[in-house]
Amino acid sequence: MNSDNRSTFFSIFSICNFLLLISLSAPSAVFANPHEFLLDNGLKLIVKQDHRSPVVVTQIWYKVGSIDEVNGVTGVAHVLEHMMFKGTEKVPNGEFSKKIAAAGGRENAFTSYDYTGYYQQLHKKHLPMAMELESDRMRNLLITKEEFEKEIKVVMEERRLRTDDQPRSLLYEKMMSVAYQAHPYKNPIIGWMNDLENMTVDDVQDWYDRWYAPNNAILVVVGDVDAEEVHQLAKKYYGAIQSRPLFSFNERKPQSEPPQLGSKRITVKAPAELPYLIMGYHAPAIKNVQEDWEPYALEILEGVLDGNASARLNKSLVRESQIASSASAGYGAMARGPSLFFLSAVPSAGKTVAELEQALRGEIEKIAKTGVTAAELARVKAQVIAGHVYQLDSMFSQAMQIGRLESIGVSYRDTDLILEKLKAVTAEQVRDVARKYFNDDSLTVAVLDPQPLEQKAPPRAPAGLRH
Q1: What is the dihedral of CA 234, 19, 332, 265, to 10 degrees?
Q2: Which residues of the chain have pLDDT under 70?
Q3: 273 is catalytic
Q4: CA torsion, points 243, 247, 248, 251, in degrees to nearest 10?
Q5: Fewer CB within 10 Å, N or C, the chain?
Q6: Residues contacting residue 216 through CB under 8 Å, at least 6 positions apart
Q7: How many CA atoms lie within 13 A of 174 on its CB side?
Q8: Are 189 and 15 in contact (CB under 8 A)?
Q9: ∠ at Cα 95 (197, 128), nearest 5°?
Q10: Which of 36, 69, 81, 299 is an active site residue?
Q11: How far, in whole angstroms, is CA 215 from its chain's centroid?
């Protein structure tokens, strides 16, 4: 059910980067019309009017994710996401989804390191129904032991299916647990299996009671609507829900990651056809949109290395030297916690992982020594600005732009500033971040050592798996 827990090494960071690029690609006019409201109970409402078709997307974002979990209950944010579909006294188990489907809509949910979200997309005339359903489960969810015991088995099977039985996902999970020493990003979003096996219904109830409140949520509505009418609907359905005492972002424990004092290496043996290499360098995320510059330079560096056929990794390692059958880079500038800059690759037949690692290092060293060309810089900036502008055709993507930025503590109103900061990145700044952050003292190397594949039937998705 965790839509951000992908089966590639990028996981949260690539989706963070994808959504950042979408938001950066938006011209000023696109963000000119959002209307922002604050209900008396602390619920923030952001409405963006888009009248191209009679459709509406409504998303509720809770500013809590696996980053807020503690040892022993990892995965609880994701487990609660599953339980949110188990019904209330007013809307019995299964009825939520049936009502949305009967209206011709679609709905689902996602959990990430930094937030948890629920959404519906349907004809605009059904917006009141969607709001009524979503607001009902904000505080009236029935979390029973019987349903929990069923659903926790679904989550454990989801973990087996998407992580334990997927060698690259398993390698990424192990790598994250080594790259981070103290920060909660070291724990998988879906949770460690031992924690899932020992989780109780009270753990889930406590999480729900602590974090699911209007003053810890953002309601985003995009579509063929009138902003003030949506405001009145929000007050009608959400306004009576009481706020709850909780920590704001600024009051939560900082959970800083201590400096890494030397390179780390991990080898994971798992059934697979081919080896796989991930190199992760500690790098900063954006904390001050106005004053930071390094994350923007790192975004450009990622585009120089990866992004299209002319990017350096594909051109040099795949097409020219043919040392890799595939190679990629990934970095996420937007996160509540510290980021990582990833390089990953699969060696070509007859090539070793050691040779591949040296080739990846060589590409970074070239940039650290000689920088990037004016043509590369212009290409990447044009790619960021223009390549994702078509995403604005999607109301869902527009809502994701707004919700995700707001959920990590960055205002959607900063999108124009972010774009200008990215446009202002120089070749010298790209070279400087390559020199500063790509060093062994901040590096974690993870290698997949392929083991013989077992002859077995492909796994089936467990009942109740929504993604």
Answers
A1: 100
A2: 1-32, 249-250, 386-392, 455-467
A3: no
A4: 150
A5: C
A6: 42, 62, 63, 64, 244, 246
A7: 21
A8: no
A9: 120
A10: 81
A11: 22
